[in-house]
Automatic annotation (TrEMBL):
One of its GO terms (molecular function) is (S)-3-amino-2-methylpropionate transaminase activity. Belongs to the class-III pyridoxal-phosphate-dependent aminotransferase family. The keyword Transferase applies. Its EC number is 2.6.1.19, 2.6.1.22. Coiled coil: none annotated. Pathway: Amino-acid degradation; 4-aminobutanoate degradation. CDD domains: OAT_like. It comes from Pectinatus cerevisiiphilus. Its cofactor is pyridoxal 5'-phosphate. This is (S)-3-amino-2-methylpropionate transaminase. It catalyses: (S)-3-amino-2-methylpropanoate + 2-oxoglutarate = 2-methyl-3-oxopropanoate + L-glutamate; 4-aminobutanoate + 2-oxoglutarate = succinate semialdehyde + L-glutamate. Keywords: Aminotransferase, Pyridoxal phosphate, Transferase.
Length: 461
Protein backbone atom coordinates (compact mmCIF):
# COMPACT_ATOMS: atom_id res chain seq x y z
CA UNK A 1 0.00 0.00 0.00
CA UNK A 2 1.15 3.50 -0.77
CA UNK A 3 0.93 4.66 2.86
CA UNK A 4 3.52 2.04 3.81
CA UNK A 5 5.90 2.81 0.93
CA UNK A 6 9.34 4.34 1.26
CA UNK A 7 10.66 7.35 -0.67
CA UNK A 8 12.00 6.32 -4.06
CA UNK A 9 13.03 8.25 -7.15
CA UNK A 10 12.83 6.15 -10.33
CA UNK A 11 13.22 8.78 -13.06
CA UNK A 12 16.62 9.94 -14.27
CA UNK A 13 15.85 13.50 -13.24
CA UNK A 14 13.24 15.57 -11.45
CA UNK A 15 10.68 16.52 -12.38
CA UNK A 16 10.01 13.41 -14.43
CA UNK A 17 8.70 13.82 -17.99
CA UNK A 18 4.98 13.63 -17.16
CA UNK A 19 5.31 15.93 -14.21
CA UNK A 20 7.43 18.35 -16.20
CA UNK A 21 4.63 18.74 -18.74
CA UNK A 22 2.10 19.72 -16.07
CA UNK A 23 4.55 22.09 -14.41
CA UNK A 24 5.09 23.74 -17.79
CA UNK A 25 1.32 24.15 -18.15
CA UNK A 26 1.13 25.56 -14.62
CA UNK A 27 3.76 28.15 -15.47
CA UNK A 28 1.64 29.30 -18.43
CA UNK A 29 -1.77 29.27 -16.73
CA UNK A 30 -1.24 30.29 -13.09
CA UNK A 31 0.14 33.57 -11.65
CA UNK A 32 3.84 33.28 -10.90
CA UNK A 33 3.21 34.94 -7.50
CA UNK A 34 1.84 31.57 -6.36
CA UNK A 35 5.31 30.13 -6.22
CA UNK A 36 6.38 26.50 -6.10
CA UNK A 37 9.95 25.32 -6.29
CA UNK A 38 9.26 21.61 -5.84
CA UNK A 39 9.57 19.16 -8.78
CA UNK A 40 6.40 17.30 -7.79
CA UNK A 41 3.03 16.84 -9.49
CA UNK A 42 0.93 14.69 -7.19
CA UNK A 43 -0.94 11.72 -8.60
CA UNK A 44 -2.00 10.27 -5.27
CA UNK A 45 -1.11 10.50 -1.62
CA UNK A 46 -1.56 8.21 1.36
CA UNK A 47 -0.24 8.58 4.88
CA UNK A 48 2.99 10.55 4.59
CA UNK A 49 3.78 9.48 1.03
CA UNK A 50 3.14 11.27 -2.28
CA UNK A 51 3.36 9.48 -5.61
CA UNK A 52 3.88 11.70 -8.62
CA UNK A 53 2.74 11.24 -12.22
CA UNK A 54 5.98 9.46 -13.09
CA UNK A 55 5.87 6.95 -10.24
CA UNK A 56 8.38 8.72 -7.99
CA UNK A 57 7.53 8.52 -4.30
CA UNK A 58 8.24 11.36 -1.90
CA UNK A 59 8.14 11.38 1.87
CA UNK A 60 6.36 14.51 3.04
CA UNK A 61 7.85 16.34 6.04
CA UNK A 62 5.71 19.40 5.19
CA UNK A 63 2.27 17.87 5.68
CA UNK A 64 0.44 20.48 3.61
CA UNK A 65 2.02 23.07 5.95
CA UNK A 66 0.24 21.56 8.92
CA UNK A 67 -2.96 20.39 7.21
CA UNK A 68 -2.26 16.67 7.06
CA UNK A 69 -1.78 15.60 10.67
CA UNK A 70 -3.74 12.40 9.91
CA UNK A 71 -2.05 12.07 6.52
CA UNK A 72 -3.20 12.06 2.92
CA UNK A 73 -6.49 10.42 1.98
CA UNK A 74 -7.33 8.72 5.25
CA UNK A 75 -9.86 6.07 4.19
CA UNK A 76 -12.26 6.78 7.06
CA UNK A 77 -12.35 10.49 6.22
CA UNK A 78 -12.84 9.67 2.54
CA UNK A 79 -15.79 7.46 3.47
CA UNK A 80 -17.30 10.13 5.74
CA UNK A 81 -17.13 12.76 3.01
CA UNK A 82 -18.60 10.37 0.44
CA UNK A 83 -21.46 9.51 2.77
CA UNK A 84 -22.21 13.20 3.28
CA UNK A 85 -21.93 13.90 -0.46
CA UNK A 86 -24.63 11.34 -1.13
CA UNK A 87 -27.01 13.45 1.01
CA UNK A 88 -26.14 17.06 0.08
CA UNK A 89 -23.06 19.15 -0.66
CA UNK A 90 -24.17 22.49 0.69
CA UNK A 91 -26.56 23.99 3.16
CA UNK A 92 -25.92 27.60 4.07
CA UNK A 93 -26.20 27.80 7.82
CA UNK A 94 -28.14 31.06 7.70
CA UNK A 95 -30.84 29.31 5.69
CA UNK A 96 -30.92 25.67 6.78
CA UNK A 97 -29.55 24.05 9.92
CA UNK A 98 -27.49 20.95 9.29
CA UNK A 99 -26.61 18.66 12.15
CA UNK A 100 -22.97 18.23 11.19
CA UNK A 101 -22.28 21.90 11.95
CA UNK A 102 -24.08 21.66 15.29
CA UNK A 103 -22.38 18.42 16.31
CA UNK A 104 -18.95 19.74 15.35
CA UNK A 105 -19.54 22.95 17.31
CA UNK A 106 -20.55 20.87 20.34
CA UNK A 107 -17.44 18.74 19.95
CA UNK A 108 -15.08 21.72 19.67
CA UNK A 109 -16.79 23.46 22.60
CA UNK A 110 -16.03 20.45 24.77
CA UNK A 111 -12.40 20.21 23.63
CA UNK A 112 -11.25 23.83 23.46
CA UNK A 113 -9.28 25.05 26.49
CA UNK A 114 -10.69 28.60 26.41
CA UNK A 115 -11.78 30.46 29.52
CA UNK A 116 -15.36 29.91 30.61
CA UNK A 117 -17.60 26.93 31.27
CA UNK A 118 -20.11 27.68 28.52
CA UNK A 119 -18.54 28.01 25.06
CA UNK A 120 -19.74 28.65 21.55
CA UNK A 121 -18.08 27.91 18.21
CA UNK A 122 -18.73 28.98 14.66
CA UNK A 123 -16.97 28.05 11.44
CA UNK A 124 -15.29 29.74 8.52
CA UNK A 125 -13.17 28.48 5.62
CA UNK A 126 -9.49 29.33 6.22
CA UNK A 127 -7.00 30.24 8.88
CA UNK A 128 -6.98 33.88 7.80
CA UNK A 129 -10.77 34.00 8.13
CA UNK A 130 -10.55 32.46 11.59
CA UNK A 131 -8.01 35.04 12.75
CA UNK A 132 -9.94 37.94 11.25
CA UNK A 133 -13.18 36.76 12.83
CA UNK A 134 -11.46 36.33 16.19
CA UNK A 135 -10.44 40.00 16.04
CA UNK A 136 -13.96 41.05 15.06
CA UNK A 137 -15.38 39.19 18.04
CA UNK A 138 -12.85 40.77 20.39
CA UNK A 139 -13.74 44.23 19.14
CA UNK A 140 -17.46 43.53 19.45
CA UNK A 141 -17.06 42.39 23.06
CA UNK A 142 -14.62 45.04 24.31
CA UNK A 143 -15.85 47.95 22.16
CA UNK A 144 -12.17 48.81 21.62
CA UNK A 145 -10.43 49.59 18.30
CA UNK A 146 -6.87 48.25 18.56
CA UNK A 147 -5.03 44.94 18.65
CA UNK A 148 -1.46 43.91 19.41
CA UNK A 149 0.39 41.27 17.41
CA UNK A 150 4.04 40.22 17.39
CA UNK A 151 7.25 40.17 15.43
CA UNK A 152 7.50 36.98 13.40
CA UNK A 153 3.73 36.52 13.37
CA UNK A 154 1.85 35.08 10.41
CA UNK A 155 -1.92 35.35 10.45
CA UNK A 156 -2.98 35.32 6.78
CA UNK A 157 -3.31 37.22 3.53
CA UNK A 158 -6.58 39.15 3.83
CA UNK A 159 -6.14 42.89 4.24
CA UNK A 160 -6.46 42.74 8.03
CA UNK A 161 -4.40 39.60 8.49
CA UNK A 162 -1.70 40.90 6.12
CA UNK A 163 -1.53 43.86 8.49
CA UNK A 164 -1.26 41.48 11.44
CA UNK A 165 1.44 39.42 9.70
CA UNK A 166 4.95 40.64 10.44
CA UNK A 167 6.80 39.67 7.27
CA UNK A 168 5.78 42.23 4.69
CA UNK A 169 6.99 40.09 1.81
CA UNK A 170 3.50 38.61 2.19
CA UNK A 171 1.96 42.05 1.68
CA UNK A 172 4.26 43.79 -0.79
CA UNK A 173 2.53 46.75 -2.41
CA UNK A 174 -0.77 46.08 -0.64
CA UNK A 175 -0.96 49.16 1.60
CA UNK A 176 -2.29 51.27 3.07
CA UNK A 177 -3.16 48.86 5.84
CA UNK A 178 -5.87 49.15 8.49
CA UNK A 179 -5.09 51.32 11.46
CA UNK A 180 -5.09 49.98 14.99
CA UNK A 181 -2.73 47.02 14.47
CA UNK A 182 0.39 47.39 16.64
CA UNK A 183 3.36 45.11 17.05
CA UNK A 184 5.42 43.99 20.05
CA UNK A 185 8.54 41.84 20.07
CA UNK A 186 7.95 38.09 20.32
CA UNK A 187 10.14 36.15 22.78
CA UNK A 188 12.58 34.68 20.27
CA UNK A 189 14.89 33.63 23.08
CA UNK A 190 17.59 32.20 20.80
CA UNK A 191 17.99 35.66 19.29
CA UNK A 192 17.72 37.68 22.49
CA UNK A 193 20.06 40.67 22.71
CA UNK A 194 23.72 39.68 22.67
CA UNK A 195 25.09 39.08 26.14
CA UNK A 196 21.71 38.84 27.82
CA UNK A 197 21.43 35.83 30.16
CA UNK A 198 18.57 33.49 29.24
CA UNK A 199 16.98 33.98 32.66
CA UNK A 200 16.60 37.72 31.95
CA UNK A 201 14.94 37.25 28.57
CA UNK A 202 11.33 36.90 29.70
CA UNK A 203 11.44 40.15 31.65
CA UNK A 204 12.99 41.82 28.62
CA UNK A 205 10.22 40.71 26.28
CA UNK A 206 7.49 41.66 28.74
CA UNK A 207 9.00 45.12 28.96
CA UNK A 208 8.89 45.29 25.16
CA UNK A 209 5.13 44.66 25.36
CA UNK A 210 4.75 47.50 27.83
CA UNK A 211 6.72 49.72 25.44
CA UNK A 212 4.11 48.98 22.78
CA UNK A 213 1.45 50.28 25.14
CA UNK A 214 3.50 53.42 25.68
CA UNK A 215 4.49 53.99 22.06
CA UNK A 216 1.46 52.76 20.10
CA UNK A 217 -1.76 52.27 22.03
CA UNK A 218 -2.87 52.85 25.58
CA UNK A 219 -3.94 49.41 26.94
CA UNK A 220 -7.46 50.72 27.62
CA UNK A 221 -7.90 50.96 23.85
CA UNK A 222 -6.61 47.45 23.08
CA UNK A 223 -9.27 44.85 22.31
CA UNK A 224 -6.99 41.85 22.02
CA UNK A 225 -3.46 40.51 22.05
CA UNK A 226 -3.03 37.81 19.39
CA UNK A 227 -0.45 35.09 20.07
CA UNK A 228 0.64 31.96 18.25
CA UNK A 229 1.43 29.39 20.98
CA UNK A 230 4.18 28.22 18.66
CA UNK A 231 5.04 30.60 15.84
CA UNK A 232 4.92 28.88 12.46
CA UNK A 233 6.16 31.08 9.64
CA UNK A 234 8.15 33.04 12.22
CA UNK A 235 10.51 30.11 12.72
CA UNK A 236 8.80 27.46 14.88
CA UNK A 237 9.36 29.39 18.08
CA UNK A 238 7.40 28.29 21.17
CA UNK A 239 5.97 31.05 23.33
CA UNK A 240 7.63 30.49 26.73
CA UNK A 241 5.05 29.57 29.34
CA UNK A 242 6.34 32.12 31.84
CA UNK A 243 5.91 34.82 29.21
CA UNK A 244 2.38 33.59 28.40
CA UNK A 245 1.48 33.75 32.09
CA UNK A 246 2.72 37.33 32.24
CA UNK A 247 0.76 38.27 29.11
CA UNK A 248 -2.38 36.72 30.58
CA UNK A 249 -1.90 38.81 33.73
CA UNK A 250 -1.54 41.97 31.64
CA UNK A 251 -4.70 41.10 29.71
CA UNK A 252 -6.62 40.56 32.95
CA UNK A 253 -5.36 43.83 34.40
CA UNK A 254 -6.51 45.92 31.44
CA UNK A 255 -9.56 43.98 30.24
CA UNK A 256 -7.82 42.81 27.05
CA UNK A 257 -8.81 39.53 25.41
CA UNK A 258 -6.10 36.97 24.72
CA UNK A 259 -6.50 35.31 21.31
CA UNK A 260 -4.58 32.11 20.56
CA UNK A 261 -3.91 31.53 16.88
CA UNK A 262 -3.83 27.71 16.73
CA UNK A 263 -4.22 27.53 12.97
CA UNK A 264 -0.95 25.65 12.46
CA UNK A 265 -0.26 24.22 15.90
CA UNK A 266 -3.68 22.77 16.70
CA UNK A 267 -5.12 19.25 16.36
CA UNK A 268 -2.46 17.10 17.99
CA UNK A 269 0.50 18.72 16.24
CA UNK A 270 2.27 19.74 19.48
CA UNK A 271 1.37 16.69 21.58
CA UNK A 272 -2.01 18.00 22.72
CA UNK A 273 -5.26 18.44 20.82
CA UNK A 274 -4.61 22.16 21.20
CA UNK A 275 -1.25 23.70 22.07
CA UNK A 276 -3.00 25.95 24.58
CA UNK A 277 -3.64 22.88 26.72
CA UNK A 278 -0.03 23.39 27.83
CA UNK A 279 -1.10 26.90 28.89
CA UNK A 280 -4.06 25.50 30.79
CA UNK A 281 -1.79 23.11 32.67
CA UNK A 282 -0.01 26.18 34.10
CA UNK A 283 -3.26 27.96 34.98
CA UNK A 284 -3.55 30.09 31.84
CA UNK A 285 -6.31 30.02 29.22
CA UNK A 286 -6.97 32.14 26.15
CA UNK A 287 -10.28 33.94 25.69
CA UNK A 288 -10.59 33.03 22.01
CA UNK A 289 -9.03 30.26 19.91
CA UNK A 290 -8.75 30.40 16.12
CA UNK A 291 -8.19 27.06 14.42
CA UNK A 292 -7.94 25.62 10.90
CA UNK A 293 -5.52 23.48 8.81
CA UNK A 294 -5.68 19.90 10.19
CA UNK A 295 -9.22 20.32 11.51
CA UNK A 296 -10.66 18.63 8.40
CA UNK A 297 -7.75 16.77 6.78
CA UNK A 298 -7.56 19.15 3.84
CA UNK A 299 -11.21 20.03 3.28
CA UNK A 300 -11.39 23.85 3.73
CA UNK A 301 -12.64 24.64 7.23
CA UNK A 302 -11.70 26.82 10.16
CA UNK A 303 -13.23 27.52 13.55
CA UNK A 304 -13.43 30.18 16.23
CA UNK A 305 -14.26 29.36 19.85
CA UNK A 306 -14.89 31.62 22.85
CA UNK A 307 -16.98 31.67 25.99
CA UNK A 308 -20.64 32.49 25.63
CA UNK A 309 -20.61 36.10 26.85
CA UNK A 310 -17.96 36.98 24.26
CA UNK A 311 -19.67 35.23 21.37
CA UNK A 312 -23.10 36.55 22.22
CA UNK A 313 -21.83 40.13 22.10
CA UNK A 314 -21.46 40.03 18.31
CA UNK A 315 -24.21 41.86 16.38
CA UNK A 316 -26.25 39.82 13.92
CA UNK A 317 -24.77 39.75 10.43
CA UNK A 318 -21.20 40.55 11.48
CA UNK A 319 -19.99 36.94 11.33
CA UNK A 320 -20.83 34.03 9.02
CA UNK A 321 -20.65 33.46 5.27
CA UNK A 322 -21.88 31.41 2.35
CA UNK A 323 -19.57 28.41 2.63
CA UNK A 324 -18.81 28.62 6.36
CA UNK A 325 -19.25 25.23 8.01
CA UNK A 326 -19.81 23.41 4.73
CA UNK A 327 -21.41 19.99 5.34
CA UNK A 328 -18.62 18.06 3.60
CA UNK A 329 -16.01 19.86 5.71
CA UNK A 330 -17.93 19.27 8.94
CA UNK A 331 -18.25 15.56 8.15
CA UNK A 332 -14.50 15.39 7.54
CA UNK A 333 -13.71 17.27 10.77
CA UNK A 334 -15.90 15.06 12.94
CA UNK A 335 -14.16 11.99 11.60
CA UNK A 336 -10.71 13.59 11.98
CA UNK A 337 -11.31 14.30 15.67
CA UNK A 338 -12.66 10.78 16.21
CA UNK A 339 -9.53 9.30 14.63
CA UNK A 340 -7.19 11.58 16.56
CA UNK A 341 -8.75 10.64 19.88
CA UNK A 342 -9.13 6.94 19.12
CA UNK A 343 -5.59 6.52 17.76
CA UNK A 344 -4.07 8.85 20.36
CA UNK A 345 -2.26 10.96 17.79
CA UNK A 346 -1.33 13.51 20.45
CA UNK A 347 0.80 10.85 22.13
CA UNK A 348 2.18 9.83 18.75
CA UNK A 349 3.15 13.43 18.11
CA UNK A 350 5.23 13.44 21.29
CA UNK A 351 6.88 10.14 20.30
CA UNK A 352 7.77 11.50 16.87
CA UNK A 353 9.03 14.73 18.38
CA UNK A 354 11.38 12.91 20.72
CA UNK A 355 12.88 10.92 17.85
CA UNK A 356 13.34 14.00 15.69
CA UNK A 357 14.80 16.10 18.50
CA UNK A 358 17.26 13.33 19.38
CA UNK A 359 18.54 13.26 15.80
CA UNK A 360 18.66 17.04 15.55
CA UNK A 361 20.62 17.37 18.79
CA UNK A 362 23.05 14.72 17.56
CA UNK A 363 23.49 16.71 14.35
CA UNK A 364 24.31 19.81 16.36
CA UNK A 365 27.34 17.98 17.68
CA UNK A 366 28.49 17.21 14.14
CA UNK A 367 27.50 20.18 12.01
CA UNK A 368 28.45 23.69 13.09
CA UNK A 369 25.84 25.16 10.74
CA UNK A 370 23.03 24.23 13.15
CA UNK A 371 22.41 27.04 15.59
CA UNK A 372 19.27 25.95 17.40
CA UNK A 373 16.58 23.27 17.52
CA UNK A 374 13.24 23.84 19.24
CA UNK A 375 9.60 22.91 19.19
CA UNK A 376 6.70 21.18 20.90
CA UNK A 377 5.73 17.59 20.20
CA UNK A 378 5.87 16.92 16.48
CA UNK A 379 6.20 20.60 15.50
CA UNK A 380 9.93 21.26 15.37
CA UNK A 381 12.25 23.83 13.83
CA UNK A 382 15.95 23.50 13.09
CA UNK A 383 17.77 26.78 12.51
CA UNK A 384 20.84 27.07 10.26
CA UNK A 385 23.49 29.74 10.74
CA UNK A 386 26.79 30.70 9.12
CA UNK A 387 28.41 31.16 12.51
CA UNK A 388 27.17 30.00 15.91
CA UNK A 389 28.72 32.97 17.67
CA UNK A 390 27.26 35.70 15.46
CA UNK A 391 24.13 33.61 14.68
CA UNK A 392 24.15 35.01 11.14
CA UNK A 393 21.25 33.31 9.32
CA UNK A 394 22.11 30.98 6.43
CA UNK A 395 19.08 31.05 4.15
CA UNK A 396 21.07 30.00 1.03
CA UNK A 397 22.10 26.78 2.77
CA UNK A 398 18.48 26.04 3.67
CA UNK A 399 17.48 26.51 0.02
CA UNK A 400 20.21 24.08 -1.01
CA UNK A 401 19.11 21.54 1.59
CA UNK A 402 15.51 21.65 0.43
CA UNK A 403 16.51 21.17 -3.22
CA UNK A 404 18.96 18.37 -2.42
CA UNK A 405 16.51 16.47 -0.22
CA UNK A 406 13.79 16.66 -2.87
CA UNK A 407 16.12 14.98 -5.38
CA UNK A 408 16.20 12.00 -3.01
CA UNK A 409 12.49 11.86 -2.26
CA UNK A 410 12.11 14.04 0.85
CA UNK A 411 10.02 17.20 0.91
CA UNK A 412 11.17 19.91 3.34
CA UNK A 413 10.09 23.54 3.74
CA UNK A 414 11.69 26.61 5.20
CA UNK A 415 10.37 29.05 7.79
CA UNK A 416 11.63 31.95 9.85
CA UNK A 417 11.90 35.67 9.34
CA UNK A 418 15.27 35.09 7.69
CA UNK A 419 14.27 31.93 5.79
CA UNK A 420 16.94 29.93 7.62
CA UNK A 421 14.75 27.45 9.53
CA UNK A 422 13.48 24.10 8.26
CA UNK A 423 10.15 23.10 9.73
CA UNK A 424 9.10 19.57 10.63
CA UNK A 425 5.38 18.95 10.07
CA UNK A 426 5.29 15.35 8.89
CA UNK A 427 1.90 13.63 9.16
CA UNK A 428 1.50 12.02 12.57
CA UNK A 429 0.66 8.70 10.89
CA UNK A 430 4.20 8.42 9.54
CA UNK A 431 5.81 5.09 10.39
CA UNK A 432 9.05 4.84 12.36
CA UNK A 433 10.74 3.33 9.30
CA UNK A 434 9.63 6.20 7.09
CA UNK A 435 10.67 8.74 9.71
CA UNK A 436 14.16 7.31 9.99
CA UNK A 437 14.49 7.16 6.20
CA UNK A 438 13.52 10.80 5.94
CA UNK A 439 15.93 11.86 8.66
CA UNK A 440 18.70 9.91 6.90
CA UNK A 441 18.00 11.78 3.65
CA UNK A 442 17.94 15.07 5.52
CA UNK A 443 21.28 14.40 7.20
CA UNK A 444 22.86 13.27 3.95
CA UNK A 445 21.76 16.56 2.42
CA UNK A 446 23.37 18.49 5.30
CA UNK A 447 26.59 16.53 4.89
CA UNK A 448 26.69 17.11 1.14
CA UNK A 449 25.76 20.79 1.18
CA UNK A 450 28.27 21.60 3.92
CA UNK A 451 31.13 19.63 2.41
CA UNK A 452 31.00 16.93 5.07
CA UNK A 453 29.75 14.21 2.77
CA UNK A 454 32.92 12.10 2.78
CA UNK A 455 33.11 12.20 6.56
CA UNK A 456 29.48 11.12 6.87
CA UNK A 457 29.92 8.30 4.34
CA UNK A 458 32.92 7.00 6.25
CA UNK A 459 30.94 7.05 9.47
CA UNK A 460 28.06 5.09 7.94
CA UNK A 461 30.49 2.56 6.41
Amino acid sequence: MLKDAMPEIITDCLPGPKSAQVIKRRNEAVPSAIRCGYPVVIKQGAGAIIEDLDGNRFLDFIGGVGVLNIGFSHPEVVAAVKEQADKYFHGMFNVVTHEGYVKLAETINALSPVKGDKRRTFFANSGAEADENAVKIAKAFTKRPNIIVFSGAFHGRTLLTMSMTAKKAYAKGMGPFPDGVYRAEFPYVYRRPEGMPAEKAIDYYIEKLHETFNDCSDPEHVAAIVVEPLQGEGGFIPAPLEWVKAVRKICDTYGILLIADEVQCGFCRTGRMFATEYWKETGVQPDIIAMAKSIAAGVPLSGITAREEIMQSVPGGVIGGTYCGNPLACAAALKVIEIMQRDNLAKRSIEIGKKVMARYHAWMEKYAVIGDVRGMGGMIGIEFVKDRTTKEPDAPLVSQLIAEAAQHGLLLENAGVHGNVIRFLAPLVISDQQLEAGLDIFEAAIAKCTGCEEVEQARLA
